[in-house]
Amino acid sequence: MPTPTYTPLANITLGSSAASVTFSSISQVYRDLVLVCQIFGAGSYPIITFNSDTSNTYQNVQMHGNGSDPNSQVFTFTGLGVSQSIGGSATEPFLFTNNIMDYSATDKHKTVLTRSNRAGSGVTALVGRWPSTSAVNTVKIDGNFVNFTSGSTFALYGIASA
Amino acid sequence: MSPLLTTFAADGISAFGFSRGGAAAGSYELISTSLVTSTVSSVVLTNSGAWTPYKHLQIRITARADTAGSIADNFMMRFNADTGSNYFREHYLKGNGSSVTSGSEGTSTSIFVGSLTAANATTNVFASNIIDILDHAGTKNKTTRSLNGYHSASFPQIKLSSGLWMSTAGLSSITFSAQSGNLVSGSRFSIYGIKG
């Protein structure tokens, strides 16, 4: 029998400003995680960290279009970027979806496929790598020194496998 | 079933030590997962009626090849064991960390769905791929789309691509392989159905 999945694990809507949002004690019964965020917060450049690891080891490769100058960068940072070029806005929703592939596996580094967009700024596709074989049990979305503001939403889903 | 490849139907989850996931009501369902347990030349996902209830398919993959002397290998997809020149290989948009390029390849014997990491890639790094196949049972030609990426110590890539199978047949199987090498242990192929 097929297994219904894309299972909602947690859903947060900010009622006031917050510097970060953390999903912890994530169930290990799924294969992939999908993080869907719509944020507000002028000047925020969200980064994502796993298992409280803030070391400067996260690898990022992005491809970005802003209407005139498509570009690609590779960079190492203290977290996974969701876009190097698109920042949050006070009034315009900034959307990003992260596919955290094989998050519960312990035989491979964690690869994250991300799409992000803000109509007034641009669109980005990004692949990130957390160089660890540890299973992901905590996901933190940080505003990177700028708060997320009220109305920002953060949803986490589990994708079953076998 | 190949001894080098283990395929689990969705109701086999508990055999893996996992408990079944939460009872999502919905239209997105796991159909099966194939795990590569020893090197194989290809992975075949077979319909056998399991895809019939669904309008669209999504395949989520983490995979790596053993292609000697290479950081990456092209990742190939075929339908219904068709090895004829019945595919439009790809149009793509990709970034490699320094530039964004767009390109295409025309009529070919397979679709390219991005790249796999290979023997010279950083240890434990597998490429990831999310492939959508719309209207898999329809009587029109089949267009696919893929989001693929990986970061190795060099030659990183993020890629959006689309391919075409020029056939009006419904899908009975999907075959994945590396262009030059084999698929290694730890590679994973999960297929999901989306109801319509």
Short structural description:
Chain A has 162 residues and is an all-beta fold.
Helical segment count of chain B: 0
Strand order of the largest sheet of chain B: 1-2-13-4-9-10-11-6-7
Distance between the termini of chain A: 12 Å
Shape of chain B: globular
What is the percent of helical residues of chain A?
under 10%
Shape of chain A: globular
Radius of gyration of chain B: 16 Å
N to C succession of SSEs of chain B: EEEEEEEEEEEEE
For the termini of chain B, the CA-CA separation is: 31 Å
Query: Beta-strand percentage of chain B?
Result: over 45%
Mean pLDDT of chain B: 90
Summarize model confidence as the mean pLDDT of chain A.
96
Describe the structure.
The complex is a heterodimer of chains A (162) and B (196). Chain A has 162 residues and is mainly β. Chain A has no helices and 13 strands. Helix content of chain A is 0%, strand content 49%. In chain A, strands 2-13-4-9-10-11-6-7 form an eight-stranded antiparallel beta sheet, with no helix packed on it. The relative contact order of chain A is 0.37. Chain B is built from no helices and 13 strands. Chain B has strands spanning 5-9, 28-36, 43-46, 56-63, 72-79, 87-95, 100-108, 111-117, 127-133, 142-150, 157-165, 173-178, 188-194. In chain B, the strands form two sheets. A nine-stranded antiparallel beta sheet of chain B has the order 1-2-13-4-9-10-11-6-7, with no helix packed on it. A four-stranded antiparallel beta sheet of chain B has the order 3-12-5-8, with no helix packed on it. Chain B is globular and about 40 Å long. The model of chain B is unreliable at 11-24 (pLDDT under 50).
